[in-house]
Design brief:
alpha/beta; FAD/NAD(P)-binding domain; binds flavin-adenine dinucleotide; binds 1,4-dihydronicotinamide adenine dinucleotide
Amino acid sequence: MSKAFDVVVIGGGPGGYIAAIRAAQLGFNTACIDAAVNDKGAAALGGTCTNVGCIPSKALLQSSEHFEQAGHHFADHGIGLSNLSIDVPKMLARKNTVVKQNNDGILYLFKKNKVTFFHGRGAFVKSDATGHEIAVTGDKPETLVAKHVIVATGSNPRALPGADFDEVNILSNDGALRIPAVPKVLGVIGSGVIGLEMGSVWRRLGADVTVLEALPVFLGVVDEQIAKEAHKAFTKQGLKINLGVRISAVTSGVKSGKKGVSVTYTDAAGKEQTLACDNLIVSIGRVPNTVGLNAEAVGLTLDERGFIAVDDDCKTSVANVWAVGDVVRGPMLAHKAEEEGVAVAERIAGQHGHVNFNTVPWVIYTSPEIAWVGQTEQELKAEGRAYKAGTFPFMANGRARALGDTTGMVKMLADARTDEILGVHIIGPMASELIAEAVVAMEFKASAEDIARICHAHPSLSEATKEAALAVAKRTLNF
Ligand code: FAD
Ligand code: NAI
């Protein structure tokens, strides 16, 4: 016998679980299907973000940053330490505990909001006027029928051709988060978000890290001035960043029973080089996950890159089937997935939920952190838009000096005529938190002068944002 629901969500990551909760809040009889398991074979709700993404990476970034501070910066505060050591298994166990707390938290939220959870894989069977039929395969096979389906099946790491992930030597984000001991030499292919975050974790713990990037520019999506500052900071920390390389071969010792990986590549000067490393993280982007969904059974259209094709409201090519998160166009970010999940649930309820892509913030949780919202200076130039720029260095901020963390700046870009804020770019301490003020300002279409006239607590890092706003009008007070 099939079980009937108003809304069935396939995928329990940030897009799916948040959509399910919002749908239930709006009074729909809602189910969520998720296939993920933890190392004990139990359900692990929360998707890539919770299990092998945002949460565990930030746990390890925090642990490794403590180690870095204790080893290199406590002495500046007059704090002496001897015999500093690192217990990697304990660090990984702590990270696993943080993940489990989040898994359990989502299960609790499902109970609280009366979302029915099915652990297993969901696949379309058929769609007709009576609704959509979904088969759940797993420990307890079920058939569900739904008026509305929200697909939130996420993404998977992209492998280099001919170099499949073995998660021992050649690591995706999954393996990169559970290397059992600090590698002597770590290779990273791709200097994007994962490469820099995970490269930073293992570099801080003592690995010799070499990053190989295909593009000739570093962090091309980031404002050029900020990317330059980041390149300087990461190089100073010891990350060996090689731009403009072409990978020709990756040979893992796993198949031949040997340790390590060998990477052959042509460098920017056209010279062939070999990197021998203990582990290699391949972080060259992610691909949408529609495997096993049987999307073709109901006529779901995919775009040319394999994403489920959706319109601005996340409607797919099939009536009452919606798709959100990494499996559709747009940035692969947990908060973007969540916003889409809420907007779809509200649309199903006849409301007008929508996502403002222009105010979706980005954060790279390295040290210094990098965060931005809106347009970069190079984008504004390419558009021919007249703008004013104001920057303020953390070096001139009292709180940053007290923290002993003065790298970086806040940069604000505003329309030359109206003064409306068009972009805010931050590199420095707590950029991930500071960016929230810029998001609010842009969402409310604030001008740079609005921020400049708001009282900011002293001493605080947020004063750098106020000063960057003052700098737009060339009237900083503290620089
Ligand atoms: P996912 O989180 O991928 O969830 C999809 C779920 O669907 C999974 O549980 C999967 O098992 C399940 N599933 C798939 N197919 C089926 C099926 N047929 N039946 C049942 N279940 C199915 N983003 C940020 O915003 N901030 C960060 O700090 C950040 N850090 C990251 C760090 C790393 C290392 C990685 C890899 C990603 C990070 N991201 C971060 C990106 C973020 O994880 C994703 O954007 C986000 O998880 C996407 O959410 P989603 O719900 O679309 O998909
Ligand atoms: P990415 O798109 O951020 O970076 C991939 C990098 O690999 C690019 O610089 C690209 O030029 C390079 N590359 C591609 N092919 C290559 C090749 N053959 N050889 C060498 N370099 C190559 O992708 P990444 O780091 O895998 O992360 C995937 C996504 O996950 C991110 O785009 C982001 O959306 C999300 N994420 C978000 C985080 C956050 O919000 N803090 C943290 C981690 C991931």
